[in-house]
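$ run holo --ligand "adenosine-5'-diphosphate" --emit tokens
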Amino acid sequence: MGTHLSRTVAEGLAFMNLIDGKAIDALSGARIDVVCPSDGVVFASIPASGQADVDRAVQAARNAFDEGPWGRTPAVERGRCLTRLCQLVEKHGTELAALESRDTGKPVRQGRADVVATMRYYEFYGGAADKIHGDTIPFLDGYTALTLREPHGVVAGIIPWNYPLQILARVVGAALAMGNTLVVKPAEDASLTTIRIAELALEAGVPPGVFNVTTGYGREAGAMLSAHPGVDYVTFTGSVGTGTAIQQAAAVHNRGVTMELGGKSPQIVFADADIEAALPVLVNAIIQNGGQTCSAGSRVLIERPIYEEVATGLAERFARLAAGPHDADLDLGALLNARQRDRVAAMVAEAERAGIRVLARGSIDKAAPAGGFYFAPALFGAVDPGAAIAQQEVFGPVLTLFPFEDEQDAIRLANGTDYGLVCGVWTKDGARQHRVAKRVRSGQVFINGYGAGGGIELPFGGFKRSGHGREKGLEALYDMSATKTIVFNHG
Ligand code: ADP
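-- output --
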């Protein structure tokens, strides 16, 4: 196995930072226990990096950008490194899926789906690296003006814990395709596959120092990295509060950021919709990954004449849902940790206290270990659109239903939160599909579907408090680079 096993301690696997191509511990030797959410048992540990470790990683990325071969590596070669990384992810797919599931509690089926999407990111950005180019601009007589797309330099990537493999891949794919170097700080609860991918990137030919990983706590290593003067650009996916803190740190240095900060995404079901086609998609959009998905479809708006029918269909499906250990591969796994589980439970208890009706609860599998962080899915309806459960991101398997009267009402409700990430629209009326798609304030709109196919090619990001900047697709390559304009006065 890889260098992550270079030190084995009594309590389990001791993973290392990867800085300048070397597996090294935090200078202080401090470590963080890694707990499997399915049983609450410690099975590994990661370095608790401090300032010296972050300094070292940023310096390695700086050197690799300023002096190393990466800055002179042609785009086609950078692309080939990513394509080889895709192949290595495929080769190690079983190991990576198992590690991701054990680290995050997600069903192994989801772990495997994440590996497939991860490969696709490296494939996509591997192919795209040499296909992004600048313009020539008609300008004054006697001049030629052109633009180049240039890398920012050292990019800091702060990665969340819900889809570590996938979110890392969209950051690494786009950043390296454009010629940046990277320091990545994965989430303290889900760092293991990030370390493995960084090792595989070395094997794929990415030079040492180009892709560095420092693990650690958000308020320590994360804050140190986002405030570091040696960083040129920050990309972050996570909670709104942490996003604000990272932007404040970036503002001190006037550096650019990409922020993907979650949502309260609606699905609008009109009376003419194909309800049978919609029902499984509506359930999956909130249950996938235990609802711990930025783009989870957490609100379903239903036109009044079909409200009872859709609510009944959803309730039947919710009652059959079961949560269990990742290797049991049920509908959903445990939530990430006790804090997340308790947060979700507190929001559900508050909604119940406020008198909002629970239409159905799923169950926790009887064989699930008592120490795991399980939460039985909950379906609420009809919900007052002003209620906390209707406005705040739960980040758990909790779905809220709302009746609406007409198209105007549906759009008002859909736009009636602080967020604007994704929207689903279910109707057979083509003109309405276009009208609603244009009037909802969200970064993606799906008509008669939701989140189809992983969407690696599809630009993704928020309106309003869901963030700014775009990831995925070719658009991410623009976020990961800056335009340089060159003007020749040749007379
Ligand atoms: P959660 O609250 O669900 O853990 P966060 O948005 O805080 O979600 O975490 C996403 C990522 O941000 C993780 O890698 C985490 O370590 C990191 N992080 C948390 N707090 C900070 C901070 N103050 N500065 C930089 N990164 C942080």
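-- notes --
The mean pLDDT is 96.
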